[in-house]
């Protein structure tokens, strides 16, 4: 019996070893095939690749830089277009906050278009019904919700004056939900039996894009209202919640590129092989110094500028690394070719969106306090009996603390 037991154990060990060998061979095969089998991960191996964008560098620049190597040609193209974008940015600032809001909306739509176009380019051969139509419909629904919330919150007095706006404001969230629910039902009705999994992939693709692009672009608008510091200087205004954070990201991008171009030797991260530690560290110190110098006369905002500039140079680049990983997953160099030498709009705003989220959280946590204007707006929306009740409660509270009596004596 003991011999049979030993023999059975040996046979079991041999069988287990063979199965492990087969499993390791299968794992090796999967690794050689790129990490997925043909049947389970068709999305990685079976779908068509995104076609590379054409070179849209202006012919004038191509002729002027024709004698340079590709490295220096790219450097000059990026530099010239960067200066042009900075000039355009300051022009927008000069035109005022309403123009800024419109530009943010346009940037948001273009970024959404670039990401959705990648999805359509990858999966267009499957002829998914209503994919692009529903994607743009959901974009419209989300923007209606966010911009409606902003208008109601910051333009309450104007909304209450107009009866149609007041009704839309009162039922805004219900209308927004009804619009989204309509799109949800249309998606369910568009499901095709042989493409169930792929259609749910694209449904998730659209919603993640909305989360990354639309939600964070709305935070930029929110920062515009929450963090405004107006300086009347020939209509030029400094927007603490918008201008400074964007400038920090721009400064970090430029200085990290400059330090990496001239001094870069040590690779920083595999997702972006051209990123170096020298560029990362140089960009950090340059951005912090830039933040201190530009806010030297704006105490106490100068203290907050150190935190904002440090985030822009340390954590902000991870938005770019995230975008690099996304592009590598689909074997593309840029999201689009909108800006020669830079790629698409999303290539320029990958870090800005992450910065906008941080600024919104930072303002809410360390800067913004209770807003008396919003409290008064809410009080005016109450019924007269509710207003009288609050008035009597507040009067009793002030009398109890002795503040009301002191004010009456002073009067």
What share of the residues lie within helices? over 70%
Tell me the strand percentage band: under 5%
Give the count of helical stretches.
18
Q: N- to C-terminal separation? A: 108 Å
Element layout with pairings:
Layout: H1 2-32, H2 42-45, H3 59-64, H4 70-95, H5 97-123, H6 131-154, H7 156-161, H8 163-170, H9 172-189, H10 196-226, E1 228-233, E2 236-239, H11 243-263, E3 267-269, E4 272-276, H12 277-294, H13 301-314, H14 317-329, H15 345-367, H16 372-380, H17 384-400, H18 403-410
Antiparallel strand pairs: 1-2, 3-4
Give a description of the structure:
The chain has 411 residues and is mainly alpha-helical. It is built from 18 helices and four strands. The strands form two sheets. Strands 1-2 form a two-stranded antiparallel ribbon. The chain has a two-stranded antiparallel sheet with strand order 3-4. The termini are far apart. Residues 1-47 and 229-238 have low confidence and may be disordered.
Which features does this protein show?
411 residues, mainly alpha, two-stranded antiparallel ribbon, 74% helix, globular, disordered N terminus
Short description:
By secondary structure, the protein is mainly alpha-helical. Helices cover 74% and strands 4% of the residues.
């Amino acid at each position: 019996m003991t011999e049979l037991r030993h023999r059975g154990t040996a046979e079991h060990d041999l069988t287990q070893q063979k199965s492990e060998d087969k499993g390791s061979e299968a794992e090796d095969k999967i690794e050689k095939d790129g990490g997925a089998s043909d049947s389970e991960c068709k999305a990685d191996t079976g779908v068509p690749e995104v076609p590379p964008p054409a070179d849209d560098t202006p012919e004038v620049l191509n002729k002027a830089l024709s004698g340079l190597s590709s490295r220096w040609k790219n450097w000059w193209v990026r530099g010239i277009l960067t200066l042009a974008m900075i000039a355009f940015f300051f022009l927008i600032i000069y035109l005022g906050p309403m123009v800024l809001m419109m530009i943010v909306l346009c940037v948001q739509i273009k970024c959404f278009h670039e990401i959705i176009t990648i999805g359509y380019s990858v999966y267009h051969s499957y002829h998914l019904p209503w994919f692009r139509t529903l994607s743009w419909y959901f974009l419209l629904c989300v923007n209606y919700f966010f911009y409606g919330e902003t208008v109601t919150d910051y333009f309450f007095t104007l909304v209450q004056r107009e009866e149609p706006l007041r009704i839309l404001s009162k039922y805004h969230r219900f209308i927004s939900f009804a619009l989204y629910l309509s799109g949800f039902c249309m998606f369910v009705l568009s499901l095709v039996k042989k493409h169930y999994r792929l259609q749910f992939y694209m449904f998730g693709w659209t919603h993640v894009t909305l989360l990354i692009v639309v939600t964070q672009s709305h935070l930029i608008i929110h920062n515009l209202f929450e963090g405004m510091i107006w300086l009347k200087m020939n209509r030029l205004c400094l927007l603490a919640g918008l201008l400074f954070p964007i400038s920090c990201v721009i400064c970090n991008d430029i200085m990290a590129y400059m330090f990496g171009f001239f001094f870069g030797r040590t690779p920083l991260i595999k997702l972006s092989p051209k990123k170096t530690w020298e560029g990362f560290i140089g960009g950090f110190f340059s951005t912090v110094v830039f933040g201190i110098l530009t806010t030297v006369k704006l105490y106490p905002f100068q203290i907050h500028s150190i935190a904002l500039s440090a985030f822009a140079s340390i954590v902000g680049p991870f938005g770019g690394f995230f975008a690099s990983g996304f592009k590598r997953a689909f074997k593309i160099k840029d999201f689009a070719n909108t800006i020669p030498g830079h790629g698409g709009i999303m290539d320029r705003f990958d870090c800005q969106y992450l910065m906008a989220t941080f600024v919104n959280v930072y303002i809410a946590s360390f800067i913004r306090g209770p807003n008396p204007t919003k409290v008064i707006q809410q009080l005016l929306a109450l019924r007269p009996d509710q207003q009288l009740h609050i008035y009597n409660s507040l009067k009793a509270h002030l009398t109890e603390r002795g503040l009301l009596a002191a004010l009456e004596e002073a009067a």
